[in-house]
Batch of 4 targets.
Target 1
Amino acid sequence: MARSEVGESLTQTQTEIETFLAARNDETSRVTLRSITGRDEQQFLDLVRASVGLHHPWMPLPATSQEFQAFLARLDHASAQGLLICLRETGALTGIVNINSIIRGRLQSASLGYAAFAPTAGQGYMTEGLGLVIRYAFDQLRLHRLEAQIQPGNHASINLVQRLGFRNEGYSPDLLFIDGAWRDHERWAITNTMISPGPWPPHPTLPAR
């Protein structure tokens, strides 16, 4: 996408986030959400460098300016969004969640990628933040299903999705190319009906039958 189109997409995501947060009106959470922007580049790259021990070899993140700009360029709002988890009191970045491969129609599904940042890791912020993103995806984006693909050895990530109520749906050998090789992954998923029976207002692209 052109730079102006990237900006418009990120602004659209931020508008959706603000609408969702205003409807929740929850002041008890320690974290909040906002869209990632180009202004976050240096701070984001600094945090990625400080968090290599957490992310490698599980989650490849942009590590250079070129990679960061390429990452922003694919966040078109409709098929992919990038959300930062921030401390409510200070605004400090504590993690990131990508809502990837958004598919509408009969599927109404997306794939999640997420990573905590080292300075604030291990304090429960990621659990709160990812939980907030899940509600955003279901309440605001009107998705029905979210999936997380996790390498079997990534116990911290598996424990995270288990805490949030995901179910294990299977094992896929050679699913994703990460760190120079095709890696096996477990597939964990959650649907809106696992959180609440609803009714959940359908997205306009969902067929009537």
Target 2
Amino acid sequence: MTPSRTLATAAAGLAAAAAVAAPASAAPGASSDGGLDRYYSQHVTWKACTLGPDDEVGRSLDEAGARCADVTVPLDYARPDGRTIKIAISRLAASDRGHRIGTMLINGGGPGPSIDMPPYMRDLMGKAGPRYDLVGMDPRALGRSAGVDCGWPSATWVRSAGETRRSFQRSVAFARDLAARCAKTSGAELPYISTRNIARDMDIVRGALGERKISYNGASYGTYLGSVYATMFPGRLDRTVLDSSVDPRRWGPGLLAGTEGANDRALAGWAAWTAKRNATYGLGATRAGVLATVRDVLRASARKPLQVGRYRVDDTALAFVPFDYLGTDEDSQRAVLADAFRVFKQATALPAEPTKDLDEELAFLLTGADSRYGSGQSAIICGDAAAPRDPEAYWRAVQSHRKESPVFGPLAHGVNPCAFWPARPEEPLTRVGGPLPALMVAATGDTRTIYPGSLALHRLLPGSRMITLKGADVHAPYQRGYRNDCVTGQVNEYLLTGQLPAHDLTCAPEG
């Protein structure tokens, strides 16, 4: 999963959870269990999506012909008569009503907001797009769905442990501060923010829309949410696409551990690409030379933060930049990363000015402009599973992986705010599994939800089929719109016909 915009198992539930997950009754979308009837049978009022003059997301939805609504759900499903919250959804109604297939819920991963996705997905889905009512939903704690904002000085909780013990201590102080801010601003809501409750919200949305079943298209974290939903509410998913899957047995605060190898390989691929363009970027004429420049820049930022425009970038923050930009091996993204390191290299000697892309990246990383994104994302991850509380455990893990992966080992195994989170998970993780005729997509070089994770979920879901994109370093190839006609064509044919391939398939890279 991609923590910046788009970032990735226990007993099947307590008695209250089992009641909530009971099969639907005869009426479409209704449930007679757990005191939730009024939520399942509520009337959905559609309205314009634009909330104000600066609401670009709402304006783009309105221009595409979508409508928006709020669906009421309990904050605490164990107390359905208590406090409620609003879950924001958008719907782009099927334009081919005579051949309408049904409703499809979309989740773009993160965890992050997804209310903006229906127009984009319609274009991506080819002939199948106009035949679905496409619904985007902001998960609780994110976007318009009771969004959590802890007043963070960053939009992401991800930091590297850096190059030195002093750097690690800075990363610990950063994580501790993030958790303390959430305890102060959102402590009352945190116990009820989890993937299991988001899955329950999804089912109420399904019921409120009057659907016995919904189709589902999820990427990255969205694959985890989709598989949890399928386990908690069996039989309620129709056509299902899971794009770059999370291994549900590894979901939680340590979700980045194990990704360093894939990122190292992707970084090496980028370095070889950049070396061929040394006349443009000046980072080295060989792959080894470019990688040495990356290490030199990181070491320099550990000694003294680099002055890049209005930002001071130290080694705990700088390592996030290649991690973020290695989500795809497309030339356009590789060029953005090469430009970023060209600027960083200049900044090791004198203050340098960022490119437009780098300025946006550093604003995301080093200012509170998108505090809501990171706050809500961490609330879900920390609310799903507990993390080790002793900072020294993280230091030992970093040290054990530093030699093998000097850039990404300290990032993948570093401390995060879940180590200091004020609320403990209310429920165990879901033990995902059971028949689900889903179509899965996975790239062998995925740097976020690594390929073995997709294989693991594939084994847990009998009846699923998987398309493997070989030789590509890309995360969420279908939803990203990665150029591969084999992947896109197979997924769209399934969405159009409902027929899974007879067996797993392999697609070769293009160009």
Target 3
Amino acid sequence: MPISKRLRTGLSLCGALLFGTEALAQDIRIPQSRDRSTEFVGFVAPRNLHLRPLVFAGLPPVEYKQLSFDEKTGARTMLVTLPAGWTQPSGYHSADLEMFVVEGGISIGDKPMGRYAYAYYPAGTAHSFGSKGGATVLFFWSGAPDYVASATSRAGAKPGAVDGAAYNDVPTTTPAVLPKFRDEPVMKNSPVRVKLLRADPATGEATWISTAPGGYPVMSGEGQLPLWATSKGWEEGFMLAGDLTIAECLPQGQVAGTYAPNGYFFRPAGIAHGGLSHFSDSYSVWLYRSGPGTWKSYANTCAEPAGDAK
């Protein structure tokens, strides 16, 4: 279907889909009760979550809101509040840690970095950081959080650390920079802009900032693709600015909702998403993360099996 026709169809049916589905987003906003390894955790508004204390021996306490949790691995995503003057002396963790500054600023070593700064430390990689004026930071852990004070990295720590990347230091490019996730080439003159923060060439895991204009998100021949996309790997997103309405194909049926700034989701592998309600009234800026095996397949309906994935 040409994209212009899809836009008209989506606009006319968006309201019906949002209010005619079996469940709405507010019916599933219970992230603490869901295991993200098997269930969709989405339409999460952090303002509705309670702050919890986070205490490690040897570190000043902080507070956090838990956005999602994996019962099998202990992996989790936290929105952490660092008070002014907080510091972590050099040390490492038993799990991989990614950090992204949502508000305020941090310093990594002697390097100050502001909003939207990023860092990645594989398990066992020694690092230090702090916040002079306070900050709100996303912490993505691949396993249970901990802290081991150490001036050096643990023996055998894997390479690939990103020891602090300021927003303006990361080049802005097209979606072609992302690990390949479907057959179609990226559309020439795509309006989507990407800042690739990290990509693992071995697994295809990636972390990036994506900016898309309002209307139907246009990427790589989207106008000719079926409405529902399914990934072989997990996907995670935190909205930085704008809005986006999207539907998820869940056991209770289609569930549609709109994300606002600070909205969050974690989508396990194999869950179809998109639908005719996939639309932005303004624009959308997201921080995205994807797991291994991100190849996507497509279907015309929520209930229809997706096409063969690579």
Target 4
Amino acid sequence: MMKSSILIHNEGAGDGKIDAEALIKVLAAAGVPTRHCSPKDPQLADCLAGAEDLVILAGGDGTVARILSQLPDRADRRIAIVPLGTANNIAQSLGILSSIEPGAGEEILSGWKHAETRFIDIGLAKGPWGEQRFVEGVGIGPLARTIIQFKSEGVSAVDSMRLGREALSRNVAYATSLASPLRIDGAPTAEDLLMAEIMNIQHAGSRVRLAPDADSGDGLFDVVTLATAARDDFRAWLAKGSDKDLPPVTIRRARAVDIEWQGELLRIDDYSPKTMDRSGRVSIGFATQRLAVLVPLAQDASTFERTATCL
């Protein structure tokens, strides 16, 4: 049983359907005293350095990834995720959220007393900008361009997912071959590529399941590459919108990847690194940090879905 917790809650996620006060009320009923800290708090680092043994992250992928990558390394601490975003790729990949509908997340509130523990590695990208930790992945090519440039304010979650996939399809249609060579665990790639994604989780972008067998805690990346010759096959697969069919990509497992960056738009999680020097070696590996995440069992998710509807 957790002794105390800290809640990091993004008030803008999930259209404000669940606020921090409601979450704290449910946690209190479960006997877990909780303090709240906003992800925008200028004293966030001090909040995360507190003594609490449970960190609850309520928000979308951007908030969850950013906070996970900043957490101090502590073996005695557990993470719980309340997915309130649109794609919820991290929660999907960890098994916290089933793929029912975009934005569904209020069913996971605090039913963690019977939870399984799964692990997530924290990646580390080094380049001309310095160093940056990440959770989801690093990529260049049309998916990176879509993630960085696509905006969907003012539309429903379902429409956002559809429009995001359509934007990715268009970017794939007009993409040129990558100019940046890759080395995967020291071995160069010889293929003519449109896209390269170094993934730590199964999903990316608008819940596109590019790496179906990725294990976020196995110390290996799933390096997903799309050959130029497979452009049309990939667009056809994307149009189906089904996780049942495997994507027409090549997947290699690796501990480290080097990119000889030639200026293409590059994403680290949901952001493009800020640097004037857009060329040079980008080295991608793992930080020493490995985080323990609680994944509620089905009975707990069901129980707290009912609780959520009463708030």
